[in-house]
Amino acid sequence: MKQGYQESAEKFKEEANVKAVEEKSAAHKDLLEKKWTSVVRLKKQVMELEKLNKQLKEESVCARCEALNEMGATMGLSKGLLGDGLPREPEKYTLQGHRGKITKLVLHPFYNIVASASEDASIRIWDYDSGEQEHTLKSHSGIVNYIAFNPNGKQLASCSTDLSIKLWNLETY
User: Fold this and answer.
1) Which of 42, 65, 88 is at the close of a domain?
2) pLDDT tens, 150-160?
3) What's the pTM?
4) 82-to-10, 42, 124, 150 alpha-carbon distances in Å
5) CA–CA separation, 41 vs 87, rounded Å?
6) Rounded-to-integer distance, Cα 34 and Cα 93, Å
7) What percent of the chain has a predicted confidence (pLDDT) above 70?
8) Are residues 107 and 55 located together in one domain of the fold?
């Protein structure tokens, strides 16, 4: 009886294609293992690329500093004076007059004037050489977000949170 049971079990396995299913599961097992090893390999590559990216960024900052120092040396400045390009103490002037935070500061392309925009809805024009305030431009009713001089230096553009853009003629203010 036992032998008859084994024969019918074998016959059933043949009819049900159990061997093919077992072979497929073995193939899927290898596939899963390959996928996991590829995930690990990709993760390693990502980490190496991130490290390389960080090194390249550091090198570009260093190269920029060296270029600035070389440029400063050709202009007669001592090496290392320019450093990272940031100004050093002491300041030349402290410009005071706005009642809110400064949102933008621009230098005139030709003349020695500076324009500053503020959250107090005003634009102030300053003399760069003396540090004195020359004019205050008030027409916006909201925070002045951005200002820019026209490349010819005759106009100043401003935009504000009051949803307006204003063009100022600097020859007539």
Assistant:
1) 65
2) 988 889 999 99
3) 0.49
4) 87, 42, 29, 29
5) 46
6) 67
7) 70
8) no
Question: What pLDDT is stored for residue 158 in this prediction?
Answer: 95
85, part of any domain: no
- Interacting residues of 123 by C-beta distance below 8 A, sequence separation 6+: 115, 116, 117, 136, 137, 138, 140, 144, 147, 156, 158, 168
Task: Flag whether 77 is in a domain.
Answer: no
Q: What is the C-alpha separation between 10 and 4, in angstroms, rounded?
A: 10
Q: What is the tally of structural domains in the chain? A: 2
- pLDDT surpasses 90 at 111: no
Tokens of 71: 């440029």
Q: Which CATH number do you get for residue 120? A: 2.40.10
Domain holding 120, by residue range, is: 102-169
CA-wise closest residue to 129 among 88, 173, 92? 92
Distance CA 9, CA 2 (A): 11
Q: pLDDT tens digits, residue range 7-40?
A: 776 777 666 665 555 566 665 667 767 777 888 8
Neighbours of 169 (CB within 10 A): 10
Query: With pLDDT > 90 as the criterion, what percentage of the chain qualifies?
Result: 31
Asked if 164 and 108 sit in the same domain, the reply is: yes
Nearest to 143 by CA among 126, 166, 157, 159: 159
